[in-house]
Request: fold
Amino acid sequence: MTRAKLCASVLDVIGDTPLVELGRITGGDDGRVFAKLEYFNPGYSKKDRIARQMIEDAEQAGALKPGDTVVELTSGNTGTGLAIVCAAKGYRFVAVMSRGNSVERARMMKALGAEVQLVDQCPDSTPGEVTGADLARVEEQAREIVRQRCAFRADQFQLPGNARAHYRHTAPEIMRQSGGIDAFCDFIGSGGSFAGCAQYFKECDPAIQCYVVEPQGAAALAGGPVTDGRHRIQGGGYSMPELAQIDRALIDGFLQVSDGDAIEMTRRLAKEEGLFAGISSGANLAGALQLLRGAHRGGRIAILLPDSGLKYLSTDLWSHHC
Reply:
């Protein structure tokens, strides 16, 4: 992808990511899947978009001034995006993250100038499997740091800039690049990418169907019992029955994806399409294939590849190759 102008800073590099048809994986199916390569953002994830939007919103509202400190909890991607944006704008940034997330993320944030506070998991938790209870510990620590340092909380679960970034940019890019879609499905973390994209798609065409993707055994938004909160799909599936970002009127259905299917599809993206993405990308692809082989046979389905496979090199997602 080429850019037609010299960028004034890294902030101008965020967004305008490629959309790629997954023709090899879907070759035997009736229909098409379009994948938005969000790891083309400078922090290698979709979260760069929301980091820029939340910080710019805060500046416009007068909630941030030069020299201030920004704090946020993160699984690593939002923190990386905020580290980049804060570096470019001159703010101090503190990332608060569970020790259950992959170490690459903490190292990258530190390299970008962030202070990283790692929070121990609950006693019965497993590294690589961050539960809702683990996230609650991170939230408690983030609130305490905000209080101690009189900092600005870039709260991705609450601030409207999260969904607005995807409404203003991600979804319009998909519509322009694809020429039109019939369905969209998205693995849920904070819910911002689903909420922003779904709202835009439905304003363009109310017939576009939008589906939430959740882990099997932790489909809390779908109203199912949480029988396996210790899934391996990092960055989401926190077993939260409600999310402030999501208007349930935007949800046309729910899809459940197993750890095995998410891992298999992530590896197939790399081997068959040459797309080195993270595990939630595999979850989104697994959801899209459910739709293509069911209610949306013959349709055009859009998904995001939220982050890069580089952020999982220390996990067993790729260890079978080494």
